[in-house]
Amino acid sequence: MAELVVTPTRKEHAEQLEQLQRTVFPTLADDERFKAVHYRHHVDLFPAGQFVVLDGARVAGSTTTLRLDFDFAHTDHRFADIFAGGWLTPHDPDGRWLYGADVGTHPDYRRRGVARMLYRARHDTVRALGLAGQVTVGSPSGYGAVKAAMSIEAYYAELLAGRREDPTLSAQLRIGFEPRGVIADYLDDPICDGYGVVLVLPAERDIAGVGGSA
Protein backbone atom coordinates (compact mmCIF):
# COMPACT_ATOMS: atom_id res chain seq x y z
CA MET A 1 0.00 0.00 0.00
CA ALA A 2 1.52 3.32 -1.09
CA GLU A 3 2.32 5.97 1.50
CA LEU A 4 0.00 8.95 1.42
CA VAL A 5 1.65 12.37 1.61
CA VAL A 6 0.11 15.76 2.39
CA THR A 7 1.57 18.64 0.40
CA PRO A 8 0.64 22.17 -0.67
CA THR A 9 -1.70 22.27 -3.65
CA ARG A 10 -0.04 23.03 -6.97
CA LYS A 11 -1.64 24.27 -10.16
CA GLU A 12 -1.09 20.95 -11.90
CA HIS A 13 -3.50 19.36 -9.41
CA ALA A 14 -6.39 21.56 -10.57
CA GLU A 15 -8.06 19.20 -13.05
CA GLN A 16 -7.97 16.30 -10.59
CA LEU A 17 -9.40 18.56 -7.91
CA GLU A 18 -12.32 19.56 -10.10
CA GLN A 19 -13.13 15.88 -10.63
CA LEU A 20 -12.74 15.21 -6.91
CA GLN A 21 -15.40 17.84 -6.16
CA ARG A 22 -17.89 16.02 -8.40
CA THR A 23 -17.03 12.68 -6.81
CA VAL A 24 -17.11 13.78 -3.17
CA PHE A 25 -20.03 16.23 -3.37
CA PRO A 26 -22.37 14.65 -5.95
CA THR A 27 -25.55 16.27 -4.61
CA LEU A 28 -24.09 19.76 -4.16
CA ALA A 29 -25.32 22.34 -6.65
CA ASP A 30 -22.78 22.56 -9.47
CA ASP A 31 -22.48 26.32 -9.12
CA GLU A 32 -21.23 25.76 -5.55
CA ARG A 33 -18.41 23.43 -6.61
CA PHE A 34 -14.86 24.62 -7.23
CA LYS A 35 -13.57 24.17 -10.77
CA ALA A 36 -10.01 23.82 -12.07
CA VAL A 37 -9.74 27.52 -12.87
CA HIS A 38 -10.65 28.34 -9.27
CA TYR A 39 -8.04 26.00 -7.80
CA ARG A 40 -5.31 27.61 -9.87
CA HIS A 41 -6.46 30.99 -8.57
CA HIS A 42 -6.44 29.76 -4.94
CA VAL A 43 -2.78 28.82 -5.25
CA ASP A 44 -2.02 32.42 -6.21
CA LEU A 45 -4.42 33.91 -3.65
CA PHE A 46 -3.38 32.03 -0.50
CA PRO A 47 -0.82 29.29 -1.22
CA ALA A 48 -0.20 28.57 2.48
CA GLY A 49 -3.81 27.48 2.97
CA GLN A 50 -4.33 24.93 0.18
CA PHE A 51 -3.46 21.25 0.63
CA VAL A 52 -3.76 17.92 -1.14
CA VAL A 53 -3.04 14.37 -0.04
CA LEU A 54 -1.25 12.45 -2.77
CA ASP A 55 -0.91 8.77 -3.59
CA GLY A 56 1.97 9.14 -6.00
CA ALA A 57 0.60 11.59 -8.56
CA ARG A 58 -3.04 10.84 -7.73
CA VAL A 59 -5.00 13.26 -5.54
CA ALA A 60 -6.59 11.30 -2.70
CA GLY A 61 -8.01 14.29 -0.82
CA SER A 62 -7.91 18.05 -0.59
CA THR A 63 -8.85 21.10 1.42
CA THR A 64 -9.41 24.72 0.47
CA THR A 65 -9.09 27.55 3.01
CA LEU A 66 -8.99 31.31 3.34
CA ARG A 67 -8.38 33.82 6.13
CA LEU A 68 -11.23 35.79 7.69
CA ASP A 69 -12.07 37.88 10.73
CA PHE A 70 -15.04 35.68 11.61
CA ASP A 71 -17.84 37.32 13.59
CA PHE A 72 -18.97 34.82 16.22
CA ALA A 73 -21.70 37.17 17.39
CA HIS A 74 -23.34 36.90 13.96
CA THR A 75 -22.61 33.44 12.59
CA ASP A 76 -25.41 33.27 10.00
CA HIS A 77 -23.95 33.30 6.50
CA ARG A 78 -24.07 31.22 3.33
CA PHE A 79 -21.41 29.18 1.64
CA ALA A 80 -22.06 31.28 -1.45
CA ASP A 81 -20.86 34.34 0.51
CA ILE A 82 -17.52 32.62 1.19
CA PHE A 83 -17.35 30.77 -2.14
CA ALA A 84 -17.87 34.01 -4.09
CA GLY A 85 -18.34 32.23 -7.39
CA GLY A 86 -15.35 30.03 -6.59
CA TRP A 87 -12.87 32.90 -6.30
CA LEU A 88 -12.74 33.23 -2.48
CA THR A 89 -12.77 37.02 -2.73
CA PRO A 90 -13.64 37.44 1.00
CA HIS A 91 -10.07 36.26 1.78
CA ASP A 92 -8.39 38.74 4.12
CA PRO A 93 -4.58 38.36 4.25
CA ASP A 94 -4.71 39.72 7.81
CA GLY A 95 -7.73 37.69 8.97
CA ARG A 96 -7.36 36.04 12.39
CA TRP A 97 -9.19 32.81 11.55
CA LEU A 98 -8.49 30.09 9.00
CA TYR A 99 -11.86 29.33 7.39
CA GLY A 100 -12.10 25.84 5.94
CA ALA A 101 -14.22 25.99 2.80
CA ASP A 102 -14.13 22.22 2.33
CA VAL A 103 -12.40 18.91 2.99
CA GLY A 104 -12.82 16.06 0.53
CA THR A 105 -11.54 12.48 0.50
CA HIS A 106 -11.87 10.26 -2.55
CA PRO A 107 -13.98 7.16 -1.71
CA ASP A 108 -11.02 4.90 -2.61
CA TYR A 109 -9.03 6.39 0.29
CA ARG A 110 -11.55 6.66 3.10
CA ARG A 111 -10.63 5.25 6.51
CA ARG A 112 -6.94 5.86 5.82
CA GLY A 113 -6.63 9.09 7.80
CA VAL A 114 -6.76 11.47 4.83
CA ALA A 115 -9.08 13.98 6.52
CA ARG A 116 -6.96 13.96 9.67
CA MET A 117 -3.86 14.71 7.57
CA LEU A 118 -5.62 17.66 5.97
CA TYR A 119 -6.96 19.06 9.24
CA ARG A 120 -3.51 18.71 10.78
CA ALA A 121 -1.92 20.55 7.84
CA ARG A 122 -4.48 23.32 8.32
CA HIS A 123 -3.72 23.46 12.04
CA ASP A 124 0.02 23.66 11.36
CA THR A 125 -0.76 26.65 9.14
CA VAL A 126 -2.85 28.24 11.91
CA ARG A 127 0.05 27.99 14.31
CA ALA A 128 2.72 29.01 11.81
CA LEU A 129 0.77 32.17 10.95
CA GLY A 130 -0.19 32.93 14.56
CA LEU A 131 -3.92 32.67 13.88
CA ALA A 132 -6.67 32.19 16.47
CA GLY A 133 -7.71 28.82 15.06
CA GLN A 134 -9.80 27.09 12.43
CA VAL A 135 -13.46 27.79 11.78
CA THR A 136 -15.64 25.91 9.34
CA VAL A 137 -19.25 24.96 8.73
CA GLY A 138 -19.84 21.24 8.77
CA SER A 139 -22.61 19.59 6.79
CA PRO A 140 -25.10 17.48 8.78
CA SER A 141 -25.01 15.09 5.87
CA GLY A 142 -27.26 12.53 7.50
CA TYR A 143 -30.10 14.94 8.09
CA GLY A 144 -31.62 15.02 4.61
CA ALA A 145 -32.59 11.36 4.91
CA VAL A 146 -34.51 11.88 8.17
CA LYS A 147 -35.84 15.43 7.81
CA ALA A 148 -39.43 14.25 7.39
CA ALA A 149 -39.27 12.57 10.79
CA MET A 150 -37.48 15.16 12.92
CA SER A 151 -36.43 18.79 13.07
CA ILE A 152 -32.86 19.93 12.60
CA GLU A 153 -32.88 21.08 16.23
CA ALA A 154 -33.72 17.55 17.41
CA TYR A 155 -31.10 16.06 15.10
CA TYR A 156 -28.45 18.46 16.39
CA ALA A 157 -29.40 17.79 20.03
CA GLU A 158 -29.07 14.03 19.52
CA LEU A 159 -25.69 14.53 17.85
CA LEU A 160 -24.38 16.60 20.76
CA ALA A 161 -25.73 14.09 23.28
CA GLY A 162 -23.91 11.26 21.52
CA ARG A 163 -27.13 9.49 20.57
CA ARG A 164 -26.67 10.01 16.83
CA GLU A 165 -23.82 9.57 14.37
CA ASP A 166 -23.56 11.90 11.40
CA PRO A 167 -21.32 10.88 8.45
CA THR A 168 -19.58 14.25 8.41
CA LEU A 169 -20.08 16.04 11.72
CA SER A 170 -19.27 13.13 14.01
CA ALA A 171 -15.80 12.80 12.51
CA GLN A 172 -15.21 16.55 12.83
CA LEU A 173 -16.24 16.51 16.48
CA ARG A 174 -13.86 13.62 17.15
CA ILE A 175 -11.06 15.65 15.61
CA GLY A 176 -11.69 18.29 18.28
CA PHE A 177 -13.96 20.86 16.66
CA GLU A 178 -16.40 22.63 19.01
CA PRO A 179 -19.97 23.05 17.71
CA ARG A 180 -21.32 26.61 17.84
CA GLY A 181 -24.84 26.15 16.49
CA VAL A 182 -26.90 25.44 13.40
CA ILE A 183 -27.35 27.86 10.51
CA ALA A 184 -30.03 27.53 7.82
CA ASP A 185 -29.71 27.96 4.05
CA TYR A 186 -25.95 27.50 4.17
CA LEU A 187 -25.59 25.11 1.23
CA ASP A 188 -27.66 24.24 -1.83
CA ASP A 189 -27.51 20.53 -1.09
CA PRO A 190 -30.40 18.17 -0.28
CA ILE A 191 -28.14 15.79 1.65
CA CYS A 192 -28.17 18.25 4.58
CA ASP A 193 -31.39 20.06 3.62
CA GLY A 194 -29.29 23.21 3.29
CA TYR A 195 -28.22 23.32 6.95
CA GLY A 196 -24.73 23.76 8.35
CA VAL A 197 -23.15 23.61 11.80
CA VAL A 198 -20.57 26.21 12.79
CA LEU A 199 -17.44 24.49 14.12
CA VAL A 200 -14.36 25.96 15.79
CA LEU A 201 -10.95 24.48 16.58
CA PRO A 202 -8.87 26.95 18.64
CA ALA A 203 -5.15 27.11 17.89
CA GLU A 204 -4.22 25.85 21.35
CA ARG A 205 -6.23 22.63 20.93
CA ASP A 206 -4.42 19.70 19.32
CA ILE A 207 -5.86 17.57 16.52
CA ALA A 208 -7.33 14.38 17.97
CA GLY A 209 -8.02 11.04 16.28
CA VAL A 210 -10.77 10.66 13.71
CA GLY A 211 -13.01 7.79 12.73
CA GLY A 212 -16.18 7.49 10.69
CA SER A 213 -16.02 8.20 6.95
CA ALA A 214 -13.09 10.60 7.20
Output the keywords.
214 residues; alpha+beta; Aminopeptidase; seven-stranded mixed sheet; 22% strand
Question: Could you explain how this protein is built, in words?
Answer:
The protein has helices at about 15-25, 35-45, 80-85, 115-130, 150-160, 170-175, and strands at about 5-10, 50-55, 60-70, 95-105, 135-140, 180-185, 195-200. With about 210 residues, it is an alpha+beta fold. It has one domain: Gcn5-related N-acetyltransferase (GNAT) (Aminopeptidase). It has a seven-stranded mixed β-sheet. The radius of gyration is 16 Å and the shape is globular. The model is unreliable at about 210-214 (pLDDT under 50).
Secondary structure elements and their pairing?
Elements: E1 5-8, H1 14-24, H2 36-45, E2 51-55, E3 58-68, H3 79-83, E4 97-105, H4 114-129, E5 133-138, H5 152-160, H6 169-175, E6 178-183, E7 196-202
Parallel strand pairs: 4-5
Antiparallel strand pairs: 1-2, 2-3, 3-4, 5-7, 6-7
Helix pairs in contact: 1-2
